[in-house]
Design brief:
The complex is a heterodimer of chains A (458) and B (177). Chain A has 458 residues and is mainly alpha-helical. Chain A is built from 16 helices and no strands. The longest helix of chain A has 34 residues, at 156-189. Chain B contains five helices and six strands, in the order E-H-E-H-H-H-E-E-H-E-E. In chain B, strands 2-4-1-5 form a four-stranded antiparallel β-sheet. The chains are: A mainly alpha (458), B alpha+beta (177).
Chain lengths: 458, 177
Amino acid sequence: MISTNIDQTLVTGHKSYGQITGELLANTQGRPPLWWLVGVGLGGILLAIGGWSFYQTLSKGLGTWGLTNSVAWGWDIINFVWWIGIGHAGTAFTIFFLVFRQHWAGSINRSAEAMTVFAVMCAGLFPLIHMGRPWLAFFILPYPNTRLLWVNYNSPLFWDVLAISTYLIMSVTLWYLGMVPDLATIRDRTKNKIQRTIYGMFSLGWDGSLYTYNRYETLLKLLGGLAAPLVISVHTIVSLNLAVSVIPGWHATILPPYFFVGAIFSGFAMVLTLMILMTKAFSIKDYITEKHFDNIAHVLKYSSLLIGLAYATELFIAWYSGVEYEIYTFFRARASGSFSTAFWIMVIFNAIVPQVFWFKRARKSILSLFLVSIIINVGMWFERYVILVSSLAEDFLPSSWTGYQPTMVDIGIFVGTFGIFTLGMLFFVRFIPVIAINEVKPISRIGKEKTVKDSQDE
Amino acid sequence: MSKQHMIGVFDNEDDLLQAIRKLKEKRANIKDVFGPATNHDLIKAFTRESLLPFLAVLVAIGTIIGAFAFLYYTAVIDYPLRYGGKPLFSFPPMVVILFLLTILVTGGVSVMAFLGRVQLFPGKEPVMIDQRASDDRFYLVMDQNFNPTEVRQWILDAGALEVVDKEVDFSLKTIFL
């Protein structure tokens, strides 16, 4: 799909190790810039809106949401699937590109994983509050209890609990272990005593011994190998929540691969959005180059084709099956009925717009990259809306058909998750090097004739 | 316990690799190497492969057996409950659960085993040769050798910036004590 010449320079500017350390630690040093403080304030406001909605939900119950007897899964599950989809790119970046020896991904890993961690946290919130009484969430785990019951292992909802908690734990572990050497670098360079103690605690006494490095590399490869199937399994299991039911539009074997491709697609789009913002905010242009954006644009272009193929296949199979309910859902409710606006937004935003990346000019222009990455994420949200709501609102019995309108509380919780995500990313870029320094150092030497000597030698 | 060590200072992996190969060939005692980055050649020349993957396989097999026994016991023996007329025990859903649990437990145990083996924990005092070991310098720390002058010459020949003698404390210390 993408060929990277192994001898190509991946970090431009002919840098020495000392220079790399200095440049990549810049974001953690000095006073916080104004945009950062403004961002934290804005994130705080979003979080407060989320907190208010959360309080409404808990104190009054799920009646504050727009759910009805027919549409029992609304914005909560749409947003859950949307965030989980975004949360996929981090591990995909780390693992798949590690397996395929795509060294260029080395400088994006750290931020992509941070994005994964915060996105999965936002996602996990939705099923939790959808329970209505989140303090009883432990009921879903199999443990010896006074009710003498165990959980239903045949239910995809139980698989989902396991899949998401496993994925969250593994992503946090990979992310944290990956940054231990960099935290040690900060610990060794800082003059501030409090900072040194805190970073010292988190860096676990890392000293860069080659014996440790040997086991560390083995461990990371092992965890990578273990987490690789997780990338596929998580979204597959999310899709099984729908596919195992008998609702028209959900009961299809195409759903697992379709959801997986959609997840990779929206995750990469979000990575692109964040990378563009980061290259604007920090001077890391030498590490995240046009080549990186170009590669991501290629991935988006091809996954967009796959998404388009999935849409077409769904429509074809609905017609070919001859089942009137399927035909109604796809050709009436979705393509030409009550949900046609959302349906055509989904098709145009996901399957057609990203095709501009066939043109080199679109891949070179930061503006077009940024706009398309936003459009894809909007389109992917509408995709989940179409799948969930159209199937539930108009299913077998016309007498139980309803419309669906979200309430302010629904919207507020969604806004609140943006607050969590924004604050998480802002604290991440402030306290942790956004590019994995210990990973970039070896790849900065790829394509160079000989080692760069430090100019300020003693 | 501080001890006097001979330390070769390098500024890149290539020269360090030369030095390690030479010293290994001459059977000199290398205590450890400290540096900000590494690569596969360096590790291969310096030490043997980690045994962590074998542990992981054993843990994974154990988890599969243990989890299967637990699922079978709870679903079939302890409280047999039929959902929707389906069989009490069916294998396909078990595959999903066993797969996820195996990944979770194996990953967790591997991380714990790693942290225990290399003795990393919050509050550990790192072995500090120099602040630049996490920035842009590699330190080749030599143990007692019977021919220190020759060893010094080999290190310098490989391209070391300098060879210094310094007291280094390799004992395990925490900031709490």
